[in-house]
Design goal:
With 253 residues, the protein is α/β, with parallel strands linked by helices. It folds into two domains: 3-60, Winged helix-like DNA-binding domain superfamily/Winged helix DNA-binding domain (Arc Repressor Mutant, subunit A, Orthogonal Bundle), CATH 1.10.10; 70-252, Rossmann fold, CATH 3.40.50. It is 40% helix and 24% strand. It has helices at 3-17, 22-29, 33-45, 67-73, 76-87, 102-111, 125-131, 156-162, 189-200, 239-247; strands at residues 19-21, 49-52, 55-58, 95-98, 118-122, 137-141, 145-147, 152-154, 167-172, 176-178, 183-186, 202-208, 220-224, 230-232, 251-252. Strands 6-5-4-9-12-14-15 form a seven-stranded parallel β-sheet, with helices on both faces. Helix 10 (239-247) links the parallel strand 14 (230-232) and strand 15. The two termini are 26 Å apart. Mean pLDDT is 90; it is low at 62-66.
Length: 253
């Protein structure tokens, strides 16, 4: 198991159990206790856990504003692969929309280091904070009702503001992608409707998602896969997955 994978697993265990001990993790992953202590230190520095004597505890108030940081650091290597692929289809002079998601925040991290002159519209505060370091990127924040859990604006007021814009490319993520019924799911109706509006205001509609979300079960249906133009994932799809996506007419990156 790679170091990043072990870190992800430790966070998952903590979120499920609430507390873990160094010795138990050492035995579970078959590594030294010293290495586990270093892992816990890294997670603490990322503000993902609270260290205690002999182990660690689940991060307190994980679902407050700190949840944005939490989500950006889970499976960070996968999201970075997706972000780098997304960069390959963003051209100088583009106007793009980045929705309120940790994967789109990672795209912003890649963009801020690029030399592209862009207009970026977003409904996520963290994306604005990231992009302010690049003077070549014109950034527009769409406001409305602030959702602390996702770190962005969603709902009727936000939707009305989004309708004032049209972009070349929209990048959105989702709670789950069901290949069997060819549908995208979100956690709430407000979030789903906001994402739908973002996609409808774009010439090119791009879904950026980790393939682990193929196995998730979302709550609210909000968009059909067949109405998208492009799918960007962190790994090559299986032949079965690829055939299904190709039949829907999506470009796979």
């Amino acid at each position: 198991m790679r170091a990043n994978e072990r870190l992800d697993e430790i966070v998952k265990i903590l979120n499920k159990q609430g507390r873990v001990h160094v010795k138990a993790l050492s035995e579970m992953f078959q590594v030294t206790e010293d290495l586990i202590r270093k892992d816990l230190k890294k997670l603490e520095e990322k503000d993902l856990i609270d260290r205690i004597y002999g182990g660690a505890e689940r991060k307190k108030k994980k679902f407050d504003a700190s949840n944005v940081n939490y989500r950006m650091n889970i499976h960070r290597d996968h999201k970075m692969l997706i972000a780098e692929k997304a960069l390959s289809i963003i051209e100088n002079g583009d106007s793009i929309f980045l929705d309120a998601s940790s994967t789109c925040a990672m795209i912003a991290e890649v963009l801020v280091k690029s030399h592209k002159e862009l207009t970026v519209i977003t409904n996520m505060l963290e994306i604005v904070r990231i992009l302010e370091a690049n003077n070549d990127i014109r950034c527009i924040l769409v406001g409305g009702l602030y959702n602390r859990r996702i770190g962005g604006f969603v709902g009727i007021e936000t939707i009305d503001l989004i309708k004032d814009y049209h972009v070349n490319k929209a990048f959105i993520s989702c709670m789950s992608v069901r290949l069997d019924d060819q549908t995208l799911y979100s956690s709430t109706k407000d979030i789903g409707l906001t994402k739908t509006t973002i996609l409808n205001q774009s010439s090119l509609k791009v879904l950026v998602t980790e393939t682990r979300k193929f196995d998730y079960h979302g709550t609210v249906k909000f968009y059909n896969l067949s109405d998208l133009d492009c799918l960007i994932c962190e790994r090559p799809l299986s032949p079965q997955e690829e055939n299904l996506i190709n039949e829907l007419g999506l470009n796979i990156i």
